[in-house]
Specification:
Order of helices and strands: EEEEEHHEEHHEEEEEEHHEEEHEH
Strand content: 25-35%
Distance between the termini: 10 Å
Structural class: alpha+beta
Largest sheet: 9 strands, antiparallel
Helix content: 25-40%
Number of strands: 17
Number of domains: 1
Shape: globular
Number of helices: 8
Length: 358
């Protein structure tokens, strides 16, 4: 695979939603997440919640594509990989004797020199552990000891409005059988948000710890190539699904209204992390107060960057969800189809029949 990284910079309009809140702070008023810049507040939606819903899409797509996922990981549990690692340690890790009261017990110990083998086992058997990363810290009380970490292969920034927050509050009541009413206040927001996402394509299926045992893992730092392609496609499809139909918290009675504004630019990089450029920018108002404003040239800036580094970057702009048969302007679907074609992840597979080498 020639391209090692992919980034997406985008603008999306969301109306009449309560997508991400900080809580009520002991009151009956639900407060939205906000970002303070200078003397103004801007609406913010955490990248963590966006990432969570992308991974929900990813798990479902992996199941449909018969890509392996640990059973416990299908529920996106925070301690993913823990039980699988403990199972691996029972068979492969050395043990030491520990005293518990008057008796001694053998306890498996995960050592640094075993990181490559343990990581290979986890990422080979679970696409979520591979793509989403994990942090597994085992304690003596579990009769295991050791810590193993893998960073996520993709990153998501906060969604931030390009204008000061527009928030309205509405009062509601909860009916109880004793005919008393519990009053609560819910916020409702509208805004045009800027967002950024970046994927380390080259790390999907890659064993970060291979260098601890270079002789054994020489030439096989990656899992099977066809399996990697399936996982990359599932992740790209999961992000595309989220952009087309965003999911957040607090949607049961406050499902966001999509108004049609969805635009952005995808950058594929052959050399290092793919650059992105935020659709929002910071400026000093009256040379003193920082403010956020729309960055109307964010796509053109990346296009010029691609022209400056011929052959290193591929730049794909998109407008709306789909612009099929509408001149040179691409929609989101057409842009992602081009990405799949460029990475040779389309349904027809590699036309030249070649596989990438590890």
């Amino acid at each position: 695979m020639d391209y090692r990284s992919l980034s997406i910079s985008f603008r999306i309009q969301l109306g009449f939603h309560a997508a991400n809140n900080e809580g009520s702070g002991g009151t009956n008023v639900m407060e939205p997440r906000r970002i303070t810049v200078g003397d103004k507040e801007y609406d913010g939606i955490s990248g963590e919640i966006v990432r969570r819903h992308i991974l929900e899409n990813f798990v479902k797509l992996c199941e449909d594509a018969k890509v392996p996922i640990h059973n416990r990981c299908k529920g996106l549990i925070p301690d993913r990989g823990r039980e699988a690692l403990k199972g691996w340690m029972r068979k492969n890790a050395p043990t030491k004797k520990i005293k518990k009261g008057s008796s001694e017990k053998e306890m498996p110990i995960l050592q640094v020199v075993q990181y490559p083998e343990a990581t290979e086992y986890l990422i080979k058997n679970c696409a979520l552990c591979d793509v989403g990363g994990f942090l597994i810290a085992l304690e003596q009380k579990e009769n295991f000891q050791g810590t193993l970490k893998r960073d996520s292969t993709f990153e998501v920034g906060w969604l931030i409005t390009e204008h000061p927050a527009i928030v309205d509050y509405t009062q509601h009541s909860a009916y109880y059988p004793d005919q008393e009413h519990g009053l609560f206040v819910q916020n409702m927001r509208v805004g045009i948000y800027g967002g950024v996402i970046r994927i380390d394509l080259d790390r999907i299926g890659f064993n970060d710890w291979w260098w601890l045992n270079p002789e054994k893992f020489k030439g096989k730092r990656y899992i099977d190539d066809e399996e990697r392609k399936k996982r990359i496609k599932c992740l790209l499809d999961a992000i595309e699904q989220w952009l087309i139909s965003p999911s957040f918290a607090k949607q049961t009675g406050w499902l966001q209204h999509m108004s049609g504004l969805l635009e952005g630019v995808i950058v594929l990089s052959k050399n290092g992390a793919a650059p992105f450029y935020s659709p929002i920018k910071f400026e000093l108002e009256n040379n003193e107060i920082p403010v956020i404003k729309p960055n109307e040239e964010y796509r053109e800036i990346l296009e010029k960057l691609g022209d400056s580094y011929k052959g290193e970057y591929k730049i794909i702009k998109f407008d709306k969800i789909s612009n099929k048969n509408n001149g040179s302007s691409k929609g989101l679907k057409e842009a992602f189809d081009e990405v799949l074609q460029t990475l040779k992840l389309n349904k027809d597979g590699d036309k030249d029949g070649k596989k990438e080498s590890n």
